[in-house]
TrEMBL record:
Pfam families: Epimerase_2. NCBIfam families: wecB. Belongs to the UDP-N-acetylglucosamine 2-epimerase family. This is UDP-N-acetylglucosamine 2-epimerase (Non-hydrolyzing). Keywords: Isomerase. InterPro entries: UDP_GlcNAc_Epimerase_2_dom (IPR003331), WecB-like (IPR029767). The keyword Methyltransferase does not apply. Residues 26-348 form the UDP-N-acetylglucosamine 2-epimerase domain. The keyword Cytoplasm does not apply.
Length: 355
């Protein structure tokens, strides 16, 4: 069986890593990189650090408005699929690369499997929400990370195409955490365990309007501990355009970290402040309190278990939320035990959700 993974943006490389490993010796696996993310720190370091084979195809699409970016990928992927003729196209998460690959494949009658199916924010302002809903309804096999995701798929009439596999980011997180701890990876200079927060902010709703971004940055700069701000290129560019400093008060901005260094920085921090989906879950898995600067989350289990607090409209609550005491310890594992990639491979080899 030949499986073609299509990836393009940073969180997809993390999800690809355990899949590439689990597919070894089980099926022929080809990788297409759309080039949505192209900076070394947003792309290449993930392939190196996580031992992912080099892509077989690279479309080098780059940045652009949603329609043009997605359309350019769609055209390029049609040619890739023509050449590769896979038995499955495996698409990951909710980016423009995910949607482009799903549309390209479904139009060519090539079966599509969607990894991380069924997540919903119910916020139709988010490009990710359009991407994941449209992809789920185009796909033939829906690989859901959680029971909640399975329930969303059932509500939308997609139960017979859905299978619960667990969360592959959990697989890679546990492996990376153990490797980092065995190596005793150092922290970024000047930081001590429990003495700082880690922050990432990159969503358009938080970065694109100058007033909103300035208010978030101002709150972060007033937190009671140093804030290691891992600046996504979008944040860096927009802060520059709006004349907002990312290095004042408690704030200390640096370039995005490679994955092992990110895990190390988070597990040693006093808390995380983010609008990323993946980082909320990583904080929970490492049992670090998270404050999410969004009105809602797809990873509702992190909130229900007390490890994640949402702050959006009233940013003046951010400081109190971030410095809240850690919740009671829990051994709940709503994201699985770190073996989701094997479940994914089994479902692909079975050929359908119901078999
Ligand atoms: C994308 C995903 C988002 C995911 C995020 C992870 C969509 C709609 N969004 O958002 O779900 O959480 O990736 O990081 O697909 N840029 C660079 N270098 C790069 C990549 C981007 O400079 O390697 C800059 C460009 O100015 C670009 C901007 O970042 O315009 C945004 O990049 P883009 O891929 O459009 O979306 P993200 O915000 O990264």
């Amino acid at each position: 069986m030949r499986i073609l993974s299509v990836v393009g943006a940073r969180p997809q490389f993390v999800k690809l890593a355990p899949i590439a490993t689990a597919l070894q010796g089980k099926a022929e696996h080809l990788i297409a990189h759309t080039g949505q993310h192209y900076d070394e720190l947003m792309s290449d370091v993930f392939f190196q650090d996580l031992g992912i084979p080099a892509p077989d195809f690279n479309l080098a699409v780059g940045s652009g408005p949603h329609g043009r970016q997605t359309g350019t990928m769609l055209a390029g992927l049609e040619e890739v699929l023509e050449q590769a003729r896979p038995d499955w196209v495996l698409v990951y998460g909710d980016t423009n690369s995910t949607l482009a690959a799903a549309v390209a494949a479904v139009k060519m009658h090539i079966p599509v499997a969607h990894l991380e199916a069924g997540l919903r924010s119910f916020n139709r302002r988010m490009p990710e929400e359009h991407n994941r809903v449209l992809t789920d309804h185009a796909a033939d096999l829906l690989l859901a990370p959680t029971e909640v995701a399975m329930a969303h798929l059932a509500t939308e009439g997609l139960a017979d195409r859905s299978v619960l596999v667990g969360d592959v980011m959990t697989d890679v997180l546990y492996l990376t955490r153990d490797a980092v701890n065995a190596k005793q990876e150092p922290l970024p200079a000047g930081l001590v365990t429990g003495g700082y927060y880690v922050s990432t902010i990159h969503r358009p709703d938080n970065t694109d309007a100058a007033g909103r971004l300035a208010a978030i940055v101002s709150q972060l700069s007033e937190l009671d501990k140093p804030v290691l701000l891992l600046a996504h290129p979008r944040l860096r560019t927009l802060a520059g355009e709006h004349g907002i400093s990312l290095d004042h008060g408690s704030l200390r901005s640096i370039a995005p970290l490679a994955y092992p260094q990110l895990i190390n920085a988070v597990q040693n921090s006093a808390g995380v402040v983010t609008d990323s989906g993946g980082l909320q879950k990583e904080a929970f898995l490492l049992r670090v309190p998270c404050t999410t600067v969004r009105p809602e989350t797809e990873w509702v289990e992190t909130v229900e278990l007390g490890w994640n607090t949402l702050i959006s409209a009233d940013l003046s609550q951010l400081g109190a939320a971030v410095s809240r005491p850690a919740p009671a310890a829990t051994d709940a594992n709503p994201y699985g035990s770190g073996e989701a990639a094997h479940q994914v491979v089994a479902a692909l080899l079975n050929g359908s959700a119901s078999s």
